[in-house]
Target: Serine/threonine protein kinase
Amino acid sequence: MERTVKPRPAVLRALGNQDPPGELLIDGEIFKRDEVFKHDSWAATALYRGNEFDAVCKMNRSQSIYGFPMKWLGRFLANREAFAYSTLAGIEGIASGCDKIARNGRTLPNVVAHQFVPGHPLGNNEEVNEDFFPGLLRILKAVHKKGFAYVDLHKRENILVGDDAKPYLIDFQISYYSAPDRIFRMPFSRTLLRLLQNSDLYHLTKHVKRHRPEQVKELGLTKFATQPWWIRAHRKVAVPFRQTRRRLLTLIGVRGKSGRSATEVFAEHAFRCENEQGENTQKAA
Model:
C-alpha cells in the first residue's frame, strides 16, 4: 500500500455501513457467507457456501446518497443481470444463475446470484494453455448470438481461469441486450449492439495479444487488433472522468497516491489474488 488510507465512508459503499449478511436462503437452501470479494459503490459481492453447491451473491446498491434513495438502482441492476444469466443459461463457460435469494423470509430484490466457479481471475502475466482463448472466443460468440454484448471485457478480473484451466465469464451487470427477434425495439439498438460486440472482440484481442500473441491470426482476430474510433471517442470522456474520480478518492484518503483501487484498505478479490500469486512466486524463487 502506497500510503496510509482509510476505509470507504458509508456513502461510497453499496450497503452503507452494513456488510453482506452472514446467512441467505438461495433457491430454498441455507447458505452461509464465507468471504467478501469486494464492496464498492455499486455492489457488495460475497461467496456463500451451501450443501449442494456454493454461490456468489452480488448485493447491488441500497445505500442512499445524501438522502437521495438508491434502492431503485439496486433492483434495476439485479433484475437485468438475473435476466442475462437466465437468457444465457446452458452456454458452457457461463455460470448457472440462481432464482430466488431471501433473508428472514423476505425476498431481496437488489440481489443476484450465480453458482460459484472454482478458479481465479486471469492474472496480468499469466500463462494460459493453447485452448484457453479459443474457448473464450466460443463463449463470447455464443453470448453475442443471444443478442448480448458483454461490454466489460477490458477488465481481466471478469475473466476466470477455472481450476479445470478453462475460461469462464462472470459479471453481466453492464452488459447490453437487444433481442434478435423483437418487433418493436429502440431505434439504433441493433447498430449499438454491433458496435459493442465489436468492442468485445477488440478487448478480447488485447488479452490474446498479451497472453498468447501467436493466436491472434489463428483465431481470425487480426481485424480487431486496431482500436476502433468509438472506443477512442469514449476514452476522450472516460479517461478524464476516471482520473478525476481517482484524484477525489485519493484526496479524501480512501486510496493511495496512484488512485488505483488496488490501494484501498479492502481491495477487491482479483487484486488480492494477484498479490498472493506474486508473493508465492517470490517465495518459490
Observations:
- The CA atoms of residues 126 and 211 lie 7 Å apart.
